[in-house]
Amino acid sequence: MKRVITGVAYNFLCILFFSIIYLFINNELTLDSTMKTQISPNLLDTIYLSTAIQSGVGFSFVYPLTSISKIVIMVQQYCMIASNLILLYIFTL
Questions:
Q1: How many domains does the structure of the chain reveal?
Q2: Tell me, what CATH number does 12's domain have?
């Protein structure tokens, strides 16, 4: 049970950490799917994006515009994949 709680806590902290990063780079993200105008997301939108990426669902209605925002999203996806692989390894012991 301790391993499950540790895994949940790790994912929760990743969501919060990346939500804060997305909030700082919110001018490099947009809510507009047509990309005609840039609508910066607020705190709730960045938490929603971070949760969607960390859960493995993918993008929500927030889209990256620049290379830096794409790199940050890829780092979060790597953290999610690595944590899943580590948890699989731990539970198969």
A1: 1
A2: 1.10.287
Q: Are 26 and 41 in contact (CB under 8 A)?
A: yes
Instruction: State which residues form the domain around 61.
Output: 2-91
- Give pTM, 2 decimals: 0.77
DSSP 28: G
Instruction: Spell 2-38 as b/e; 16+ CB within 10 A means b.
Output: eeeeebeebbeebbeebbebbbebbebbbbeeeeeee
Residue from 29, 59, 53, 56 nearest 43 by CA: 29
pLDDT digits (tens, 9 = 90+) for 23-76: 888 778 777 666 556 666 788 888 888 888 888 777 667 778 889 888 998 898
Strand, coil or helix: 63: strand
Of the candidates 6, 3, 10, 2, the one whose C-alpha atom is nearest the C-alpha of residue 91 is: 3
Identify which of 22, 91, 88, 90 has the alpha carbon closest to the alpha carbon of residue 54.
Answer: 22
